[in-house]
Amino acid sequence: MTSTNPTLGALLRGLRNREGWTLKEMSARSGIPVSTLSKIEHDRLTLSYDKLLQLSQRLGLRMSELFAESTSAAEQLVTARRSIGDLSRAVRVETPNYDYYYVCTELRRKRMIPVITTIRARSVEEFGELVHHSGEEYIYVLEGGIEVRTEFYDPVTLLKGESIYIDSNMGHAYLTAEGYDEALVLGVCSSADEGLMESLLTLHEGEISSPAGAVG
């Protein structure tokens, strides 16, 4: 029978989530290298009792707290946050290739960034270098058609109602498909990096940017 008892890795990951620490922050607090903590969390490495005792002392926790499972995980998941996506209040960024509308920007520390985008670029030469950023993204074609260029795959054409999910660290570009002057897409970018929004906006540095409304 498979044991339902949590592993050391799961317990440490749960502790880190409860405290809101990144691996880097936990490493600084515990004195254990990030690579070692990562291996423990993925159950590729364990610690002796002495090391566990040392870990709990450095974190300022009792052993019982170190191994405590969260009993309110469901409650913690309910943030009751919500935001209505309104283009008149979106942050608008205009570039030669795209018009971006970043919606629901008043919510801070989001794990998903929704973007409505008008695509105009027709070729890789017109687009320029492929874009890279952290996380993953989903693109759904609302109007027109697009050609998706990526670093490791052949180009693919998507028409209205079709979509694609990619690793955003892979170089990528979205172009208008043959026969279309422009296309409208809904994109959702996701990352564990809480600075994702800022990272995305830095991609447009030096280009025309105009907020369409107030941002909370």
What does this 3D model show about the protein?
- There is one protein chain.
- By secondary structure, this protein is an alpha+beta fold.
- It has eight helices and ten strands.
- It has helices at residues 8-19, 23-30, 34-41, 49-59, 63-66, 73-77, 124-127, 196-202; strands at 91-94, 98-102, 112-119, 136-143, 145-150, 156-159, 163-167, 172-176, 183-190, 209-211.
- The strands form two sheets. The chain has a seven-stranded antiparallel beta sheet, with no helix packed on it. Strands 6-5-8 form a three-stranded antiparallel beta sheet, with no helix packed on it.
- β1 (91-94) and β2 form a beta hairpin.
- The longest helix is centred in the first third of the chain and has 12 residues, at 8-19.
- The radius of gyration is 22 Å and the shape is elongated.
Helix content: 25-40%
Q: Which class do the helix and strand fractions yield?
A: alpha+beta
Tell me the Rg in angstroms: 22 Å
Name the beta content range: 25-35%
Key phrases:
seven-stranded antiparallel beta sheet; 216 residues; elongated; 27% helix; alpha+beta; 10 strands; three-stranded antiparallel beta sheet; single chain
